[in-house]
Design goal:
220 residues
Length: 220
């Protein structure tokens, strides 16, 4: 007897690390939509591809709202740990994915995390931790931040099994900076920066829920 696929979540929030999932869950889930789920994909683009594809394979998966989140590296001088990145698009070697509702999402984050800087721009993908000169090279492409899973998550969320664009659910990516040009992970300030980023990440869920509710409204 063939097992029936489980229905996909209405809102899927994807992160890579156990500590990221812990931050999200410790922030509480008040106001979460029915069918909300947090998915820990594991590190790297390949892990994100596989985990998100499985999560969206059930009935209704094409309509699921998908939001990639967690920590990232800022690329622009002057950024600080705890700053928020709202992706206007994500990029990886396979191509670019445009994000939905970015302005409303940025406004919701500003309400959810008062005082945190919110940066909008391109979020690029990498298969490794970016340091030093490579950070400047990625910035020269127009990206403002980099992480290892967001681009893969949104690429997979917007494709069918053949890799063709086949998506009706909204997608977005929000990352919290844990290191930046003046605050690289190899430096002593990493622990302090990590605590700041954790505190911000645990406060973002209300903004994600606002974004999801706004995505259900009729478009004008």
């Amino acid at each position: 007897m063939q097992r029936r696929a489980e229905p996909a979540a209405a809102l899927l929030v994807a992160c890579a690390l156990r500590i990221e999932r812990a931050a999200l869950r410790s922030g509480g889930e008040r106001g979460a939509p029915d069918g909300y789920a947090v998915l820990r994909t594991g590190m790297g683009p390949r892990a994100a591809d596989l985990a998100v594809a499985r999560a969206l394979a059930g009935p209704g998966g094409a309509r699921t709202a998908v939001l990639a989140t967690g920590f990232c590296a800022g690329l622009v001088p002057g950024m600080n740990p705890g700053d928020l990145i709202v992706a206007e698009e994500t990029r990886d070697p396979r191509g670019t994915v445009s994000c939905d509702g970015t302005a409303l999402l940025a406004e919701a984050l500003a309400r959810a995390v008062p005082g945190a800087a919110v940066h909008l721009g391109a979020l690029t993908g990498s298969d490794h931790v970016v340091r030093g000169q490579e950070r400047a090279q990625l910035r020269a492409t127009g990206a403002i931040a980099v992480d290892m899973e967001s681009a893969a998550t949104l690429w997979t969320a917007t494709r069918d099994a053949r890799g063709a664009l086949d998506r009706r659910g909204p997608v977005a990516a929000v990352r919290v900076i844990v290191d930046a040009p003046e605050h690289e992970l190899v430096r002593i300030g990493t622990v302090r920066g990590g605590i700041s980023a954790f505190r911000v990440l645990r406060a973002v869920l209300p903004a994600f829920f606002d974004w999801h509710r706004s995505s259900l409204l009729p478009r004008r």
